[in-house]
Amino acid sequence: MNATLPMLRDFSDRFSPIVVKELRQGLRTRFFTSSLILFHTFIILLLITVTFGAPVEAVNGIFWGIAGFMLLAVMPLRGFAALHTEAADGTLDMLTLTSIASFRILYGKWVALYSQTLLVAGSILPYMVARYFFGGVEILQEVVALVILALGSGVITAALLSFSSQGPLLLRIFLALCVGAGAVTLGFFTAILVSASQADSMVREFFALALWEQCSLIGGILALVVYAVYYFLALGSSRIAPPSENHSTLKRLVALAVHGALMVTGLLLCFLNTDPDVAFWVFIPLMVLTLIVCMDVLTEEMPRYPTAVAVLARRGRFGRLAGRLLYPGWASGVIFSAVMCVMALSIMAGITLRHSSWDWDDGPGVYMVCLFLAVFVPVILRINRTNTFVNWWVVQLCSMICGIMLTMFCFTMNARDLGVIGIFTPITTLFGVNCVDYNSRQGIMLLGCVFSAIWLLAAMVRAASSFNTYTTLECEALEQIAQEPHRTHDAA
How far apart are CA 62 and CA 64, in angstroms? Predict the structure, then answer.
């Protein structure tokens, strides 16, 4: 008797219910099916043109342009309003009332969206093989480019899904444009990788490295992608979680570990490598990640329930001291952000010390100081008092607009000395210093750093005045912990 396997008609029970729910909905939507059909139609028509004598180089460029647009824009945009739609329909409140944690909700949605992206990425492979037989294609470079697009799509999807927790449409559009800037950069890098003129030199330089260097580079990239996806999902989950939960401590501990590892790696590259500029390959991702982390922790609402501080409060004086760095809320976020910025700036200081042609007061170092100190300005300036996340972005956008207007005024009116006005905020300092004469630039830059440091000190003073909230919640948490044995005894 021949045993036959039963036909698979549904997802396995081992899958998360959120993943199953999102996959069922996502695979049946008209957006997914229509975009998939149009994508393959365009690719097939494009490959047909090769048989009519179309240049292979032009076809390859168009092919990767369509693939990059599909993987970096179309598929991630499905998470643009995912959480906002759930909240508007009332289904998000039903999910949070269940035993499913908010991070699992975000993770399930991301897995469902990213699974569909991987399905699209996998469907590109046959066309890559077909183009290989047409000639002019290096299959190894093509596979690497596809992997890079797939990994970048995962990070972009997590970012858009996280930012979809925000209600204002204009804010979500602005954040999507910021994420899109990163997607464009990744698309240009992929275009360089698959171009015959540039890719050969990159491949030769990679294989010229030692085996441990190759493995370290690949492992480091994968680790950064995993961390970026995790942090964006943790950011979004903290925005939809009940206020009694603490989603910040674990997130900050992971950030400290990852950023500390990057700092040590960057410093080792500074002082042990003959070319200190190699450390920029560590500093640039660390800089971007630091700005994202600072934006997150400085826009957290202050905790209102003792359960949010109970884990560290029960660990004694050391736990309560560590809580000033790890508790949820913008007040501890000021101290935490300062630590993150020092970690990143230490690499820049190491590069400056090793690079004899640079001066700290007239080089990229002072620009980085102003850039990092700009994250603390919204702590003092409160334009929107109801939503700290919106306020952070509004203040930064207003500072940027003021800097652009200052630059336009100085060059239009031929009054470049007025660029000194920009020293009062870090962002306007970066714009104003480019208006003044080169001989005056060094002094104005240092003066701008001094004013930027005043914003940091003011933010720390304001944060210290709000630490009483943590003290009150710690006392309440300790009282509840002391009453737990009596409640257990009475229940018995």
Answer: 6
Of 214, 241, 268, at which residue does a domain stop?
241
Please tell me whether residues 106 and 117 are part of one structural domain.
yes
The number of C-alpha atoms within 13 Å of 132 and in the hemisphere containing its C-beta is: 12
Q: Which of 302-306, 316-320, 436-440, 442-446 has the lowest mean pLDDT?
A: 436-440
Range of the domain at 422: 242-483
Q: Are 300 and 162 members of one domain?
A: no
- Which among 5, 16, 30, 166 is positioned nearest to 104, based on CA atoms? 16
Q: Measuring CA to CA, which residue among 440, 438, 436, 452 is closest to residue 369?
A: 452
Query: Whole-prediction pTM value?
Result: 0.90
- Widest distance between CA atoms in the chain: 93
Is the residue at 8 inside a domain? Answer: no
The domain tally of the chain equals 2
> What pLDDT, in 10s, does the model give residues 65-109?
999 999 999 999 988 888 887 777 667 666 666 667 788 888 888
Has residue 26 got a pLDDT over 80? no
Contact 410, 435 (CB under 8 A): yes
Question: Do 101 and 43 share a structural domain?
Answer: yes
Q: Is residue 118 domain-resident?
A: yes
How many angstroms separate the Cα of 226 from the Cα of each of 158, 222, 254, 287, 487?
11, 6, 12, 17, 43
pLDDT, tens digit, 9 for 90 and up, residues 149-188: 999 999 999 999 999 988 888 899 999 999 999 999 998 8
